[in-house]
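Researcher: Structure prediction, please.
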Amino acid sequence: MTDDTFRPTELSDLECYEFLRSRELGRLAYHLLGEVHIVPVNYAVDDDNRLIFRTAEGSKLFGITMNDDVAFEVDQLLGDEAISVIVRGRAHVLEADSAYVAERVRLRPWINTPKFNVVAIDPNEVTGRRLHMHRPWLSMRG
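Model: Predicted structure follows.
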């Protein structure tokens, strides 16, 4: 393979959202008390391309309430190919009538704990890359 084979390929917005819709688990990065935190969350994408997730009371909810600037990352590794999509945007709690969207998308808590708060991330930017990896160390495994 040539060096060009291993150059990342940029994904279009449409490809990024198709990828996001095909997955259920991502990582939310948010600010809390001067630190950046990152946590796994299961999510869904609604008809307006917002990322929707449920959360209980706690640091995630407190963090996005204090600073709505977030990033969200979803990736996949299959063989020698990886895809990574990053969403940057603003998170906010959906109140009362707006929270019904969580019932219309493919979103159910993975952990059997009450999660009454529905959060939407309104994307400002979405970027994605497909990588074909050269990992010679794999042949060194026993």
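Model: The domain at 3-140 is CATH 2.30.110.10 (Pnp Oxidase; Chain A).
Researcher: Thanks, that helps.
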